[in-house]
Amino acid sequence: MYSSLSPSTHLRCVTMNGVCECMDTHTHDGGLENIHSGCDICIYFLIFPSPINIAGLTTAEKPPSDPLPARTTAFSLTSISERENGSSETASPPGPGDQPTPASLDSLDGASVLVTGVTSTQPTPAGGADTQTLSVKADLTALMPDASDSNLISIAPSNQSSTTDTVTPITTIVAAVPKKRCEEKYNMISVKYIYDNKSKLYDVKLDYHGEEPCQTTDCTSMLQGLNECSTKSINVSHPSCEPPKILELHVPPEKEKFQLVDCTPDEIASTSICLMWRKEESFTCKMTNFTYTFHCGDNSKTTPSDMDFIQLTGLLPKHNYSCYSEVFYEGQEYINKSKLVETDFGIPEKPEEFNCSASEKEINVTWSSLQNLPNGFILCNKNNSEKSCKDLKKNTSTEVLRDLLPFTIYHISLYAYNNGKVKRNGNAVSCSIQTKEAPPTEVQELMVYRKSDNSINVSCKPPKRINGPESTYHLEVKSGGVLCRNQSNKSCRFLVEDLHYLTDYEIWVYVYNGKYYGSKVMQYQRTSYNSRALIIFLAFLIIVTSIALLIVLYKIYDLHKKRSSNLDEQQELVERDDEKQLMNVEPIHADILLETYKRKIADEGRLFLAEFQSIPRVFSKFSIKDARRPSNQNKNRYVDILPYDYNRVELSEINGDAASNYINASYIDGFKEPRKYIAAQGPRDETVDDFWRMIWEQKATVIVMVTRCEEGNRNKCAEYWPSMEEGTRAFGDVVVKINEHKRCPDYTIQKLNITSVSGFSYLLFVFVFLLNGNYEILNVRN
Questions:
Q1: Which has the least CB within 10 A, 5, 303, 689, 776?
Q2: Where, by residue number, does the polypeptide cross the bilayer (predicted)?
Q3: Tens digits of per-residue pLDDT, 309-324?
Q4: pLDDT of 388-420, one tens digit each?
Q5: In this structure, what DSSP letter does residue 87 have?
Q6: Which position has the higher pLDDT, 72 or 272?
Q7: Which helix (H) or strand (E) holds 269?
Q8: Could you tell me which CATH number the domain at 255-342 has?
Q9: Where in the chain are the domains?
Q10: What's residue 564's pLDDT?
Q11: Long-range contact pairs involving 258-265 (C-beta distance under 8 Å, separation at least 24)
Q12: Listed ranges 36-45, 158-167, 351-360, 759-768; the one with the highest mean pLDDT
């Protein structure tokens, strides 16, 4: 702050709108002019035109030869030590050519200076210049400077053109009073964190405990909207103390993230209580900054510790305990909660006066009522095979067990229970008792079958329940209501022989348990014809059927070969419609089969040939993808005679190999019998095992072979049956045994017996026609 002093000058420093302003008022061109300038602190002076004598201040006068008007030099407060650097340097007044030096008033807060009624006369300076004495009376009040601060107040030279006046001011300085330390002033300050459930933020409220509240920005704006687990340092200060107290704020986590929960294990909840503070969500606060206290009835943990749970044992069952717990964060209470905890049900008493009595299917159980009623009773009965239990009401004292098994020992047990967090069972009482005898149940799985034409085997399994001490099986054989046979045995196995042929019989079987007879079980059985006559008849029927089938198959095969030959010689130039070119051939009745055959075979089989040639070589609408797979190529004898996908014979897969189910064979429908026949190529050496696997899986009984194994020095088919000298040969899992070989002029008959690894076997006939080439036609007379 600078100001020129003259007899017409007044200098004022005032606080305007919270800002310290210095006003220099002087006369200018016949009027007053106010000049404002900013300052750090307001020191009030009253300046008059009379001479001023202030002790300690010196006014330097310029020589009278100076053409400029005389000016008053700046004055300064001297002998004020600087506490910061420990110096006691005194500022010297500036020279006439120096610029005015501003006063440093930053450190004058809280200080006071009193200057009153000071008068001083400056001695005459050397050089013979005139002297003028200025007297000033002023009541001056200023802020007392701190002992560590040095202040400089400069007064600029006057603009008057009169003779230079000399002012010798005198200054009186009062000793500074030391300020109290803020650390001591606010040593009792406490922090309260106020949580906002909506914003999830904290506001901080400071409790000064009677001291003046802090007014700094740190104490106002920085105490609102704090995030959880954040740390903030604020300066707490007041003009009456120094330096500021540094207060560390450690914001706790959100209150919803801590819940007081019951951690008591259900198994011990009848005599124990466990309470625990559970962290619901994660946060960054250090868990070591939390401490806890617990109070539960007479049991408590009042001293804060880092244990976040309490475990109480030896309590009374079904009793209420009031608990209270607090959580502290950095020593400040964070959250508290009360909880009413009830212990669980205890173990009930043991039933008394327990009695059991039994009949055939019931057991009556009684006991005395308990003094302290439980939640209920569990009554169990157990025999050698099963156990069952039932839940009874708490006021029950008798129960009847029904639908029990006769003549069975039961172990009866009874205990009380209480249902709480877990089921708590009391000690059980028990008894063992056997039910009475009863009629046995009927025998099971009665099997009656003929052992021979006039003998019967009878067997059965024991009844489910004998219901008595012993078991004897009885058999009755009746015909027309008349008892023919009566047998008994300890086991259910009977052989009834020498019965009449072609007679219906009733077979009755029942059991006796030593006291009661069980229900009878009956089956019908009819004796058979004489077996020899039946075998002869069946053999004749098989032979006739086989011959007829062989003839038909051979004719079809011969016609197919002829058509194949004709197609090889000439190639069709125009595609034909597969369905349109087929001839419509009606089924032939068995009574006119021979007559129809003679008619169609006449004229070198012209009608048969026409029917055969109407069949396309390949039906274009049917796919043959499976036969053309690379893995199946070596299983086909001819590349142009392949089975269609829709009617080919599929074998069972071996070890999951999809290629193992293929064989060059197709199903052929019979008259109103789908898939009655199978047409297959003569097996090759590589496919003999697959051929016999097909025979076994399809249960074929007749094989008609319309070609020889070798024709014209060409191998047409592998010999897939054993010779009479060899006897038996194995083809994979199928064993083939030749029983008979019969040779006729135009064909041979092999009677084979095939057996699988399972042990099952059956008879098979193989007819091999001895034609001379693929194109010979079998004479109908043969």
A1: 303
A2: 533-554, 752-771
A3: 888 888 888 888 889 9
A4: 999 999 889 999 999 998 999 999 999 999 988
A5: B
A6: 272
A7: none
A8: 2.60.40.10
A9: 1-178, 182-250, 255-342, 352-434, 444-529, 533-613, 618-669
A10: 63
A11: 258/327, 258/334, 258/335, 260/325, 260/337, 260/339, 262/339, 262/341, 263/309, 264/341
A12: 351-360
Q: Would you state the structure tokens that stand for residue 314, as one six-digit string?
A: 């030896």
**Nearest alpha-carbon partner for 335 in 460, 140, 492, 202:** 202
Query: Which class in CATH covers the domain with range 352-434?
Result: mainly beta
Query: CB count, 10 Å around CB of 193?
Result: 20
CA distance 661 to 666: 13
DSSP-derived 3-state class of residue 550: helix
Amino acid at 91: A
Helix (H) or strand (E) holding 693: helix 688-698
**Mean pLDDT on 712-726:** 88
Within 8 A by CB and 6+ apart from 757, the residues are: 733
DSSP state of 422: S
Length of the chain: 782
Would you say 717 and 709 are in contact if contact means Cβ atoms under 8 Å apart? yes
Between 709 and 400, residue with greater pLDDT: 400
User: Could you give the CA distance from residue 46 to residue 115 in angstroms, rounded to a whole number?
Assistant: 11
Contact between residue 24 and residue 4 where contact means Cβ atoms under 8 Å apart? yes
Residue 618 CA neighbour count, 13 Å, CB half: 13
Beta-bridge partner residues of 368? 352
* Residues 608, 594: Cα–Cα separation, whole Å: 14
- The pair of structure tokens assigned to 315 is 């309590």
Q: How many CB atoms lie within 10 A of CB 537?
A: 11
- Per the DSSP assignment, residues forming a β-bridge with 19 are 16
